[in-house]
Design a protein that fits this description.
single chain; alpha+beta; Heat Shock Protein 90; 10 helices; binds adenosine-5'-triphosphate; binds magnesium ion
Length: about 475
């Protein structure tokens, strides 16, 4: 059974029951009050009449007695009969006409009491027989029978209004419970639909229940839950795609690098091969030969170390990165080179830079590479300025050096893998920087003027 049907059924049943029992008790009260009143009236009429006929009875003047009885009978229209018995217990005067009901004397004998009342179930309906002593100390009794016609009429009237009242209450109960159930089940149905929507994974939607009561409170909580689910879901998706993006970038970088790697390794290996070839024919090695071998092996080592360092990077871990702390870490990693080359670093980072979403180790790598390039651009010492600021979408870190600058003819090549102008460089630094920044949704670019220095700028999307 649906909730709505249950509510209608229950409310109507309660309403009908309440009305039914109320009317029943009202009816009982009315009947009792009416009977009380009837008895009082009967007793009073019988008492008065008994006083009136007492003398006649004493004188055995039964015709006068009968006259008195008839007078009262005429006056009171709900009195069915009146009769008086004499000392011998025989009916001496009555209003029955010809036929006196048999056994009437046994119906309600007063005996030793001063009065007696009895409800008689007769052919003419219920009659209340009120019997009183005509005068104290005698056996003579006066009885009058009062019909309960009026009472029956009243009861009938009560019954008449009871039926339409019950019908009216039933009808209004049904209507009220219908409205009530609608008020309750309508938002409930909305909630049911809403849970289906959430079940389908459509988070962030709202259930529209504009009530200020508990149902409204429930709706607000539901909406909050939906928003929270949406946020969590978005974060999960973001992390997932981000990780995949980084992985894809990394693979493509490795792909790009591998080709160059083979090429780059070929040069020192050819040199080594030639030297060893020469040793085979003339086995005495000069100091100069040993130096060359060492240099070429170091070159191979540097290239492979850097390549493996990048390729071996563990799983990406996307976190909220505080760029101030991160650049500080990169500077501390480069501290040895900075000191060795007599370089002074000036920092001007905005204190409350918003966080960036990304992989800590990779981003650290970006700033370390840029700092090392700046340091290597000023072998005789100098200044590095590092500043950080933000706009409403990106945070921007600028690393400026006062080195020799990048000559205009090689500016388009510095991001290429293995492009280097340095004796011991691998040329992988900037290409890795470029790929990491790009995979974080950012950009890296530079400005350089020969002789005046270079400014590298890294822009990363804000994580908030
Ligand atoms: N701050 C800079 N000032 C002047 N030239 C720079 C600067 N940064 C990069 N370059 C130029 O760009 C080239 C490529 O840089 P990249 O970092 O990719 O390789 P590298 O520094 O030569 O080698 P590695 O980074 O492996 O040590 C450098 O050899 C250098 O010529
Ligand atoms: Mg470099």
């Amino acid at each position: 059974m649906k909730l709505r049907t249950k509510i209608i059924f229950l409310t109507t049943a309660i309403a009908v029951n309440v009305v039914f029992f109320t009317l029943l008790s009202i009816r009982g009260v009315i009947i009792n009050a009416f009977r009380d009143e009837l008895e009082k009236r009967g007793t009073s009429i019988a008492g008065n009449l008994a006083d009136r006929v007492a003398n006649h009875m004493l004188l055995k003047d039964y015709s006068e007695t009968k006259k008195a009885l008839n007078e009262v009978l005429k006056k009171e229209n709900d009195i069915e009969y009146i009769f008086v018995t004499n000392e011998g217990g025989i009916i001496a005067a009555h209003t029955f006409g010809k036929e006196i009901p048999p056994d009437i004397l046994s119906w309600n004998p007063v005996n030793n009491k001063s009065r007696n009342i009895q409800l008689l179930d007769t052919e003419k309906g219920y009659i209340r027989d009120v019997g009183v002593k005509v005068s104290n100390g005698t056996k003579s009794e006066l009885h009058l029978g009062i019909r309960e016609d009026n009472l029956r009429q009243t009861v009938m009237q009560v019954r008449k209004i009871t039926v339409p009242i019950i019908m009216l209450v039933t009808l209004s109960g049904v209507i009220a419970s219908f409205i009530f159930s609608r008020l309750l089940t309508k938002p409930l149905n909305k909630f049911i639909e809403f849970t289906k929507v959430l079940g389908r994974g459509e988070f962030g939607k709202r259930v529209d229940v504009p009530y200020g009561d508990e149902i409204g409170y429930l709706a607000r909580n539901f909406n909050r839950l939906s928003m929270e689910l949406k946020n969590v879901n978005e974060k999960m998706e973001e992390t997932y795609t981000y990780t995949h993006l980084l992985q894809a970038e990394k693979l493509s970088t490795i792909g790009q690098i591998s080709a160059g790697l083979a090429h780059e390794l070929k040069n020192p290996l050819t040199t080594l091969k030639m030297l060893f070839q020469a040793f085979k024919e003339q086995p005495d090695m000069t100091r100069e030969d040993a130096k060359i071998i060492n240099r070429e092996i170091e070159k191979i080592d540097a290239i492979i170390t850097k390549f493996l360092g990048f390729a071996k990077q563990k799983d990406f871990e996307i976190a909220d990165i505080n760029i101030n702390a991160l650049t500080e870490k990169a500077l501390s990693l480069a501290a040895f080179d900075i000191c060795r080359h007599d370089i002074v670093v000036h920092k001007d980072m905005l204190e409350n830079l918003p966080e960036v979403k990304g992989d800590r180790a990779l981003l650290e790598h970006v700033f370390l590479n840029l700092i090392l390039n700046a340091v290597q651009a000023m072998p005789g010492g100098g200044d590095i300025w590092m500043s950080g600021k933000t706009d409403d979408k990106f945070i921007e870190v600028v690393i400026r050096d006062k080195g020799a600058g990048i000559p205009s003819d090689i500016r388009s090549k510095v991001f290429d893998p293995f492009f280097t102008t340095k004796e011991d460089g691998t040329g992988l630094g900037l290409s890795i920087v470029y790929n990491i920044v790009k995979s974080h949704g950012g950009k890296v670019f530079f400005n350089s003027s020969e002789g005046a220095g270079t400014v590298f700028t890294v822009r990363l999307p804000r994580g908030d």
